[in-house]
Amino acid sequence: EVQLVESGGGLVQAGGSLRLSCAASGFNFDDYGIGWYRQAPGKERELVARIGNGGTTTYADSVKGRFTISRDNAKNTVFLQMNSLKPEDTAVYYCYYSDYNTRYNYWGQGTQVTVSS
Questions:
Q1: pLDDT digit string, tens, across residues 9-29
Q2: Sign of the CA dihedral running 65, 77, 7, 106
């Protein structure tokens, strides 16, 4: 059974930092890119960052220079280090991957990040 379990969210003041984790199981983690998405109330879910199976990273313009995505293949875990947080970063953060054989999209349950001004 595929599982993506996020953790590390919470309440932080503007300018603060949080580190999110996504623990994966049930598939060949090393073979897949993993993405972090977020969804704020009343807004569409948007891609925040993605890391490929080879370590290539991409970021939304809004988080470049502040967020860093990384992966530890030995622990089947992807991290999102978030620095210089802003109130507009407030959202539920989800990790995601798409199985290239079945084309099925997998999502975690999400973790709430709230940034106070």
A1: 999 999 999 999 999 999 999
A2: positive
